[in-house]
Amino acid sequence: MQENQQGACLLIHGINGTPYDMQDLAAEITTRGFYAETMLLPGHDVEPWVAHHYGWDEWTAAVRERCDILTARFGSVILIGHSMGGALALHQAAQDAQVTALVAMCAPAELHAGLLPLARHGHRLLPFLPSVFDDTSDSRERWGYLRRRRLWFSATKPLYSLLQALPTVRQELRQIQCPTLIIAARNDHVVPARDGAYIYDHISAVEKEFVLLEHSWHIVTRDVERDLVAMKVVNFLRRATKLPPTSTASENAVRHL
């Protein structure tokens, strides 16, 4: 039986991330009448020698399974992904007609030249690397990340798996026709903002929007413009589901802080 909700949103975190990165955005979406669910990708929030055995195939299978469950329950699903989670959302939307809207935040399309061959050999030479900071300009959030940190090393093979998958993701962009919101950050130190522009230019969606944040770094859902991100996402969801947008007053206030 399908539930009577405005929409079912699945929020997907990035590589080496956790649902914590998405929980505030999920809470805001829920207050606006949507069903919002965060997921923990396989091989995340586990010891690095366990994470070493997981990659693109396991991540895409997990996203597909959650989409199938939500579609059976609600009739369709809206995907909201950050970083690698954005790439997973793009991949799923290209194949699944039940994905009715898509938000990709700081999603990789090409990343950096030379990174793939470096990762191809690097993951064997350096299977684990220290992971000690969060790419946010908000110093309070960075210190909070250190206090919450449970694992101090990350496996490098999952990154290689993502890099191997990106050419396929790029090829699939033309298949994406659902309404799409692309968010990038000018000062992102992980995924270049040009990747967001590339995605925007290559998807086939008629309804699409590109937002470039001026002050945030990579973790835009927890950085200084997180309220603006939430406003952009909620208004996009309302447009995609044919609901009137919320007032832009708070958005303008955030923009001029």
Overview of this protein structure:
Helices cover 45% and strands 16% of the residues. The chain has a single domain, classed as Alpha/Beta hydrolase fold, catalytic domain (Rossmann fold), CATH 3.40.50. The protein is built from ten helices and eight strands. The strands form two sheets. The chain has a six-stranded parallel sheet, sandwiched between helices. The N and C termini lie far apart (45 Å). It has helices spanning 20-31, 48-51, 56-74, 84-95, 115-125, 139-148, 157-172, 193-202, 226-240, 249-255; strands spanning 8-12, 35-39, 77-82, 99-105, 128-130, 153-155, 180-185, 208-213.
**CATH class assignment:** Alpha Beta
Principal-axis shape equals globular
Please identify, by name, the CATH architecture.
3-Layer(aba) Sandwich
Name the CATH homologous superfamily.
Answer: Alpha/Beta hydrolase fold, catalytic domain
Structural class comes to alpha/beta
